[in-house]
Amino acid sequence: MDRIKERYRKLVFFTWFLTLDLIMFGAFVRLTDSGLGCPDWPGCYGSVTPLGARADIHEAAQAMPFGPVTLSKAWIEMIHRYVGAFLGMLIIAIVYMAWRHRRVLGRTPTLATVSLVAVCIQGAFGAWTVTHKLMPAVVTAHLVLGLSLLALLTWLAARERPHIALPAQAARFMVPLAFGLGLLAVQVTLGGWVSTNYAALACMDFPTCHGAWVPEMDFHGGFSVIRGLGELPSGEMISQHALTAIHWVHRNFAFVVLAYLGVLAWKMQRLAGVRGPARLILVLLAAQLLTGLTTIFFQWPLLIAVLHNGGAAGLTLACVVALVRLATAGGPPVRQFAPASP
């Protein structure tokens, strides 16, 4: 019985860790412009690996030397797909164990099943990312769904970790923190929109943008959802004013999230049961501010941009862990394994 619980716990934590890694690697795929390294799905020019597609890749690279298809980009894209497929198999294994051993584990399998549905939807958006030629709305949805899957698996994993019992009055932080997580979700979506529209360098100065606090912007063009990459809904090339609008909104909404979550985390760190997640939120908020500014001043260096994406993932998991712990406020300490159902 204990062996089953231990196997399940290890499987959940390994899957959670792999999901976090895959999100970071997904940012690397996007930022290296490797999303169309293999412009078909699920293989690479009909082959399982880029090795079988060398001739096609070489031909595409010759036709467009600075285009999206090269052998290195093909490998980056395919490794991302391989790891994503492996992640899906791990979640299937979690669901299998959650259902088969639900009495031993003392857990309802609902959350694990929802995670499986989420990874299937995420896989579909991964395919559409390629077939729709990096359409910004699809790529942004793929990013947001990836972080949603991370949140679900963090929830799943957090239930398996012991923590200090929280007093009943700690539950007053649940609604404010849930609202803060909602603000973070909006900011992550805006950040994905910046990245998928290549608007990170639309404003090269700070704190002003193009020398003005409110520069000339095209919100309608920048936030039109149904359009191709680099285009307006009319088919014309997207304007600098539209890119500026995308960047400006993400930049300024960041201060709303920074202030709200910063004050809330500062208050929550007084509670021993959520001190760790609260302090992590504070550290990551500072890191996000630093990497965001560094991206502007150093013109979007790859490592910093990937770390900025990783910071968003870290904030998501820290907020979810805190919420899971606050949900137990007033109850007994959560032990490593819940007792089996009678």
Description:
The protein is mostly helical. It has 2 domains: 1-161; 167-334, no CATH class. It has helices at 2-31, 54-63, 71-100, 102-105, 110-131, 136-158, 174-196, 219-222, 240-268, 275-297, 302-326. The longest helix is centred in the first third of the chain and has 30 residues, at 2-31. Mean pLDDT is 91; it is low at 335-342.
Concise summary:
Pathway: Porphyrin-containing compound metabolism. With 342 residues, the chain is mainly α. The chain is built from eleven helices and no strands.
Helix/strand-derived category reads mainly alpha
Mean pLDDT: 91
Distance between the termini: 14 Å
Helix content: 55-70%
The DSSP helix count reads 11
Q: State the order of secondary-structure elements, H for helix, E for strand.
A: HHHHHHHHHHH
Strand content: under 5%
What is the domain tally? 2
Taking all Cα atoms into account, the compactness measure Rg is: 22 Å
The poorly predicted ranges are 335-342
Total number of β-strand segments?
0
Give the overall silhouette.
Answer: flat
Largest sheet: none
Subcellular location: Membrane
Pathway: Porphyrin-containing compound metabolism
Pfam families: COX15-CtaA
Keywords: Cell membrane, Disulfide bond, Heme biosynthesis, Iron, Membrane, Metal-binding, Oxidoreductase, Transmembrane, Transmembrane helix
